[in-house]
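Example record

One chain of 564 residues, shown exactly as stored in the release files.
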Amino acid sequence: MFVVDSKSTVIKLTVLELETHLLGKEFSEKTTNVLRENDIDGDVLLTLEENQLQSLGISLGQRVKLVRYIKSLSMGTSHSTVMDPTILHHFESPSSGTVTPESQLWESHLQTSLNDQLVDNNHQMEDLLGSSTSRDPLPFSFEKFSEPVPTASDSNLQNHVPPKVCEKNLTFDVKEILNAHEEGKKIVEKYQADVAMPVTEVDRNTIINIALGHVIRTIGNYYPEASTKQKLAAAIVAAFPQMGLIRDGLPAYTYIYNSATGNAYIDQHLKRMRKAALTPDQRKRKSVEKPKDDARKGKGKSLKKSSPAEQPLSDEYVAECKSKVAWLQNCGVFLENKSKIMEYMDETYEYRRYQIANILLTPTAIVTEFPRFLDVDFGRLIIADYVHQYPKTSDIGTFMSKYGNRLIRLALYNNMEIQESTDAFLKVLVVCVKLMPRIQQAKSQLNTTLQQLVIFLKENTNLEEFVKNKPKHLKQPFLVCLGTLIAPKQFFLVVDFYVIDCGSECSNAFNVLFSSFFAFNTEYPKPVLMEFYQFFEYAVYGIVPSCSCNIGAFVSKLECLPLT
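Predicted structure tokens for this chain:
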């Protein structure tokens, strides 16, 4: 079936109709959102010029396409577009009431896509919760939807073409939707019994999956409007408040649907559904612009560390810093020198960051040039450099005060074995690693992952010999603990082949470890611990304003639990 674009048809489109129309023309969801939010309908669209589109914040590529499209309409050049079968509604012959080939195609394609292909293609799909390369089975399945897909032969569809669904008027009662589905009904009953119980990953994905199945059947295609996805996300949190993530200025459903990033759970589910049900050509009917680099998308990237300085430092400042650095390189770490060491490290901070971003590209090079990182007050200077970068950072004490008891409660909910320790921080830290979503999906990697965080060695271990022969996979900074998890004695930070004494308390040692990724401009260990450190960025230290949907879901599970 072909749809012909012309000025006379486009000029009559309402704001919402224009949004749907342009999505079908492969304009991005971000662009159509901007047009909708500025009340641009078909009539107004035809009057827009390139500078006006730029003032709306539409990207260059999308502006060029829009201007070209508007000019073609104004010149009377028609555009014919092949209509994706999945966006066809039920077509019947108005006179005879017989089912047309188009309606048979819609009925067959959607029924097969939703009920069979989504299940049969499970094993081919990527891990829904992230970009893990693991081929483990998904933690949920695309269940068959309980409600039958409407067919063109239904009595209430006889002898007419059903009107187009106006998504603006759609509302969702998620519990009602779930109760119509066998698995969904079990979930409703399960969480009604304990409204404070954290929703598991499997249950969360089943909820979203069933709810999206309802949306797809209702609108007749795999591309719901942004407003529909937003309403569905809000309805899910309304039905299950423990899934909400409360943050100032953000809706509680942000990690379930986020129009700014396009990579929250609803969009991830839809992407997998389309992949299972549609051909590659059919999926190309839409494109989504990538969010800006500063949008936290949960794609496995760590927080950006130092970058080359745009402006060179003044000659006078550089000369002054070189003199102070020379003194720092040769001074003894005596009590009478410590205040001057701290003063000079503070005054040379900008010079040091310039050197690290442009010249000193490895931790070894950094430590060689600034050796006081190694031997002052159990890593104090490393923490100081991190605090310089993020002066509004929260204290490491937030981890225990806000999440300590909650992590233990969540572990008990998950029937997880909790190992005791004389160091309460260490005990909870290990529990936190084990509870992270990626670890839950790749439990076979647990021991290797824990080694990237902390390695336990006998108290008489020669650390210099150990670091010379450390396992090859330990490339990023990590902790060494002399003693055992039950009875830890002393902690050290290992950076390249250097060992830094961090004292006897795990809380300080981990604070130094986290700070070292910033002080030494080093990436987090990949792939599993990346998410762990990003949890600390967002929830504990508070140095990023948003997070990936995996971390958002994890934090919401913790924060729905009582503090004590």
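Notes: The domain at 2-83 is CATH 1.10.150.50 (DNA polymerase; domain 1).
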